[in-house]
Amino acid sequence: MEADGTVATVAAETAQPQYAPTPGVPSSTLLQLWAMLNQRHRWSSLVVVPSHPGGSGLQAVQAILEVANRQSSIPLHFLDAEGLELGASQHVVSEMRAYVEQGDRVVVLIDSVVANPLGLEIALAAEKALLSVTLGSSDYTSARRTLDLIGKERFLGSVTLQPPSGALKK
Fold this sequence. Notes:
By secondary structure, this protein is of the alpha/beta class. It has helices at 28-38, 58-71, 89-101, 120-125, 140-150, and strands at residues 9-11, 45-50, 76-81, 105-110, 128-134, 155-161.
């Protein structure tokens, strides 16, 4: 989400992508995603949240990790908080803060906060957020509710993903 209220979007590669056409060189799509995430705001903690119940931001996280490992000198850690159970969110928040306190960056993957509100504590503890939108599955109402719950001002933008291979078309 840009400061003017618009959502910056970068389309990510699809399932089984060819991220690096040349060995060791990220694709232009991944470089655009990384630039979008780092262009206007410095962040130490980023939560990736699907825009709809049943969605996943895993493809987006994998893309972020791949390009960060080649483009950033600051270590970037990944915490998988999908399927979070009652009482577990505080542990994830503590782990996220520990990485930030040591000067590192951390990306946390959570479930849709519309479907599993336990991730909301993590999203609100993170400095920034990235909305993961799956083509053909995401709906406007869930995406809007996600933005409202977390706060539009926290979002750096969104990433549009193709549905996983073999996904049923609606």
